[in-house]
Amino acid sequence: xxxxxxxxxxxxxxxxxxxxxLPLAALIRGDLRELxxxxxxxxxxxxxxxxxxxxxxPRYEHQPERAAQRGGTVRGQLAxxxxxxxxxxxxxxxxxxxxxxLDTWSRLRASDPLGARALEQMLVGVATRKYxxxxxGVPESxxxxxxxxxxxxxxxxxATAAKLTEWLSRPLAELDICAVxxxxxxxxxxVVLVALGVDAQGTKHVLVLWAGATENSVACKGLLEDLVTxxxxxxxxxxFVIDGSGGLRAGIRDxxxxxxxxxxxxxxxxxxxxxxxxxSKHAAVRAAMRQAYKSTKVDSAKRLLNNLIxxxxxxxxxxxxxxREGLDETLTVxxxxxxxxxxxxxxxxxPVENLNGSLRDLARRVKRWRDGAMILRWAAAGVLExxxxxxxxxxxxxxxxxxxxxxxxxxxxxxxx
Length: 417
Hints:
Layout: H1 2-56, E1 68-80, E2 83-94, E3 99-100, H2 103-110, H3 114-123, E4 144-145, H4 149-169, E5 177-187, E6 190-199, E7 204-212, H5 217-229, E8 238-242, H6 246-256, E9 260-264, H7 266-274, H8 279-293, H9 298-312, H10 317-324, H11 340-346, H12 350-363, H13 372-387, H14 399-416
Parallel strand pairs: 5-8, 8-9
Antiparallel strand pairs: 1-2, 2-3, 2-4, 5-6, 6-7
Helix pairs in contact: 3-4, 4-13, 5-6, 7-8, 7-10, 8-9, 9-10, 12-13
């Protein structure tokens, strides 16, 4: 009987406790965010007041050795949930009449996440005019600011400009870059040149964004000289993969000399050739070029490509000339004897093209480009977004073979010279 009574009593207590907790749980579920924010503001207020008490002593107590006194409160701004909220800031005034800064307040203000939050929202596609709608709400009792279109745009400009400055000044000597992909991306009347480096482990690094009117040799040489200034050794044996631009090729020759091995993108070459042909010829010519580029030996590939040139010459001399120009440099990597996966990775500018695709997607949100500085800032934002998804180059485990092949190739060139 006693055990039964105890069991029944315990069951009743649990029932009563559950009945008491249910309304409280419902309250918390309904207003959890507001509850947490309110408690957070109260905790900050308590921390500030505690520091003021440590400096001024307890309120309403006479202290002959007091070194500071209370100076009331003023309205202060703190970052919360992607916006600035107004909170009361206690003031402490020294005996000389000057205000004494509170360490707690300084630490809370030192870390400003608003710029990063605005940048993140813009990168995921939130328009400046819809920024406030994308944020979590705050209690109505809190006065907030900093969510207007102009405020968000200003923070975005500051964040992207800071990121761009960081990239343009970052030292490169320690990155161990052994290959560089280069390509140009058009924004209205401007071209942004992008250099994507690959280190000895196959890891990708965006090296530079460079603005110019065209992909001419002056702009390309300026980009390459900037890389050298920041630590990219011009005497090192290195592979450059480019889209076929004559300006890029001339710039590489001027800055890095014969120790730079150049591979022209096979896909760009293919598109350049078919651009000189009627559509009825596109499929057949693409298939013939793909067959040549799948060869395992340079001699076989050149024979197939030269056969194609001869077949195009009578009726389509423009296409034949396009294919003939720089033909050997489209087969550079094939001649290094690399494993097939790594050879394919370095035969085209696909890695930097994927990066450019992310930049294009982001740029579509801009209706009007004001100047080159704006273009570079948006390019920096696109790079930031794209770099989060970077993976190591396909075939990266065979990178030592590339380094060895580069050394052997350049040594052979120098001996022949």
